[in-house]
Amino acid sequence: MKKFTTLAVTAGLAVVMTGCSTTDSADKETFEYAINENLANDCLMLTTRDANFPVTVDVPQTDREQLISVNSTKIEQYDALVEAGLLQVQNEQREVMATLEQDAHTVSAKTYSLTDKGQQSLKAVHMQNAMGGVRKGFCVASYKVDEVLEFSEPTETMGQTVSHVHYTMTPTGIQEWGRSPAVQAAFPNVASRLEATRRENATLVLSDEGWVDETTLDERPL
Question: Which domain holds residue 70?
């Protein structure tokens, strides 16, 4: 069982971190700094089915197509981002070649491309899990540590000094377009995520540069 240390925070014991402060101390302020350094590389992200713009989507032609076609969801999301100023749209006609099942015909389509505002908001973030990969989408807010709740006493594990930290975090720097009714309707989880305080865990490892999140170890020398 891990032993966790909870520190009482009082005005008399407040620690002021300065440029001369060490980053290898095991305390709440140091761990908050280390976690925030890692959170700076991530964001609260809106993801669409395709984020490689420009994107062309065929418009569903019948009521039945509108109900069952994945394109209906795509168009709702992209149109919301057009209203938010992140995308621009061009309506066009696209020729569909004949097949055994149907003759050649023309369908309506929408092509969505990034605006300057959208280009600034679109980010590619390396996923910090065993699967790796890149997650791409529009950053609506950043995260910051709200409070370090508790942490385990640093221990040696496989040649590394490790501490397990429990903390809460909240969104910060929320973009106004993320609060628009159209965006929140097209991305139903946005409203709750923008208001929620989340409880998270982190494993911090003591490196030559101080405490770092274990998920960043592949990105820097220890």
Answer: 55-118
User: pLDDT digit string (tens) for 85-100?
Assistant: 999 999 998 777 767 6
144 and 201: one domain?
Answer: yes
193: in domain: yes
| Residues 152 and 173 occupy one common structural domain | yes
Backbone dihedral angles phi then psi of residue 31, each to the nearest 5 degrees: -70, -35
What is the CA 178 to chain-centroid distance, rounded? 13
Q: Identify the DSSP state of 172.
A: E
- For the question of whether the overall pTM of this predicted structure is more than 0.70, the answer is yes
Sequence-ordered alpha helix ranges (H) in 102-171: 116-121
The tokens of 189 are what?
A: 């989880």
3-state SS class at 64: helix
In terms of domains, do 106 and 16 share one? no
Q: Quote helix, strand, coil % in the chain, to nearest 5.
A: 30, 35, 35
